[in-house]
Predict the structure.
Amino acid sequence: EIVMTQSPATLSVSPGERATLSCRASQSVTSNLAWYQQKPGQTPRLLIYLASTRATGIPARFSGSGSGTEFTLTISRLQSEDLAVYYCQQYNNWPYTFGQGTKVEIK
Amino acid sequence: EVQLVETGGGLIQPGGSLRLSCTASEFTVSNNYMSWVRQSPGKGLEWVSVTYIGGTTYYADSVNGRFTVSRDNSKNTLYLQMNSLTAEDTAVYYCARHGQQLILSWLDTWGQGTLVTVSS
C-alpha cells in the first residue's frame, strides 16, 4: 500500500497570503494524484486531479504541482472561505490511499 | 444536476449487518466507475471499494470478505452490504463517482454521506 504523508498537519495563514501544502508518496504515483477540500460539516470536494488540473468551477487561486513522489497544493491568496481540511489522494495503485489531511486555519 | 444520495446508515450492534444505498441522478451508475469511501469520526478518509463498469469490485483489506458491492441498474443504485460489523467500521460512508471511465481516476462527485455507528 502506498502511504501518503501530508505536511504540515495544520497551517495558519492570513487572508490574502499564500498557503503551501505538501504531499509525499511512499513510492512513485506518476501524476495520478488528486486534491480534495473538505469544509467543516461538508462533503469532500475535488479541487485538482492529474496533479495539476483544476476541476470544474475551482477558482484559479488553487494550483497543484509535482509528480512522482512530491506534490504541492498552493492557494495563492487565501480567503476566509478556504478554511478547510485538504486531502491528497493517489489513484495510481490499488488500494487508492489518502493523506491524513492538512487543516488550513485563517490567522 | 449530477447527484448521489446515500441512505441506510444507522446504529447497529457489533456483529450485525447493514446495507447502504447510493442512488444517482443525471448519470448512469452502471456506465461509471464507482467507489465507496469512509471517514471515521474526526479522522481521515479511507477507500473501501471500487467497482468497475463491468461489475468487478475491489475491496480494501479491512473490509474484504465482509463487505459486498452490488448494483441495481433499474434503480440506478449502488449498494454496500456490510456484514460482521465491528466498532472499527463506525464512520460516515460516502459513495462517489470516478472522474473518468478508467481504472486510474479521481473522484469527481460525492454523495452527502450516511453515518454508520456500530455500538452495543
